[in-house]
Amino acid sequence: MERAEQISEVAEQVLMELTQRNYEKICEYYNANKDAIVSDFYDAINRLITLTKEHQNSFCKKAVQYVAVSYLLSSTITKSYEFQLSLMSEQYFLDPIESCIYWSPHWLFTDVDKDWNMLFSRVRKEIIRLHPYELDRIWRSYICSFYYGLTALFVAEHIKAAAISGGLEDLRLAKEVSFIYGGIMNQFVQLDGLRTEKENEVFSHKDGSEI
């Protein structure tokens, strides 16, 4: 068996155990602290909408078509585990007026460092002269599939209600608004949608010209 296959086989067994343990622990913590956790997310979305309103009023940002939650793979290196929350026009990530903030669900990532230490320690017992970089691909895959997967479930449950509560409908919106989740500048999945009655509205600059 090739070395990479041996590493993968041992690591996958360790990560299966960690996944089961962490899932139960995270669910227990979430159920005990749900109000505070959800409130924090609502506050973040409210800040984003307030920022976007300023951008539409002062910088003529176009109608919002996408409410996006993007995980940042670079945050697995910095260990910040941040997500970018964005309101984007029909131009998607090419929207020239960037309306975004950063949010981290720290309650989800409490045991990430412990997971890494456990993974490296257990695999090193089976694989001689193991180097951390040999686990990089497996580790990133675990973060994406487990932690970012759980975040997706949380976001899917709360993003639309949080946006509406935070005043999304007070912004200039496209005919249809999509709530999306995925890697920044990468493939997204649509979590929800909102049809509006704003496609026929005309908004103007202060000088009278149409936006």
Low-confidence stretches are: 199-211
Largest sheet: 5 strands, mixed
Radius of gyration: 21 Å
Can you give the mean pLDDT?
90
Which word captures the global form?
Answer: elongated
Number of helices: 5
Side-by-side strand order of the widest sheet: 3-2-1-4-5
Approximate strand percentage: 15-25%
Please state the structural category.
Answer: alpha+beta
Instruction: Please bin the fraction of helical residues.
Output: 40-55%
Assembly type of the shown chains? single chain
Characterise this structure.
- This protein is α+β, with helices and mostly antiparallel strands.
- Helix content is 49%, strand content 18%.
- The protein has a 5-stranded mixed beta sheet, covered by helices on one side.
- A hairpin with a 4-residue loop joins β4 and β5 (188-195).
- The chain is elongated.
- It starts with a helix and ends in a 16-residue tail after the last strand.
Give a summary of the structure in a few sentences:
The protein is α+β, with helices and mostly antiparallel strands and 211 residues long.
